[in-house]
Amino acid sequence: MKILFLDTTNNTEVILKLFIDGKEHQQTIPLQPRQSHLLLSIINDFLEKHSVGLSDLTEIQVGEGPGSFTGVRVGLSVANALAFGLEIPVNKTKIIDGKTLVEPRYS
Predict the structure, then answer these.
(1) Could you tell me the sign of the dihedral formed by the alpha carbons of 107, 81, 83, 45, in that order?
(2) Taking the model in full, what pTM does it have?
């Protein structure tokens, strides 16, 4: 199993974890304000570093909040889109016909 975890709830960093057959790899990347457009390339670089392609992923996990309003929404949007496109679960829920998306928690 290859599970990608991403947490963008803190607007100053992105936390990525990759679980490969029970072994955990983690990286924290500092971000400046308004750099959320870099998230996909950050994820891609992280996966490449561990010789994993998007199509190798079996699940995506994402921090749902609470946290930075924009950070939470960006992370969830990316996780939901990737999971939908790859037809894999996000936070243990499979997205079917755009339904059952993971939604943010603000409190």
Answers:
(1) negative
(2) 0.89
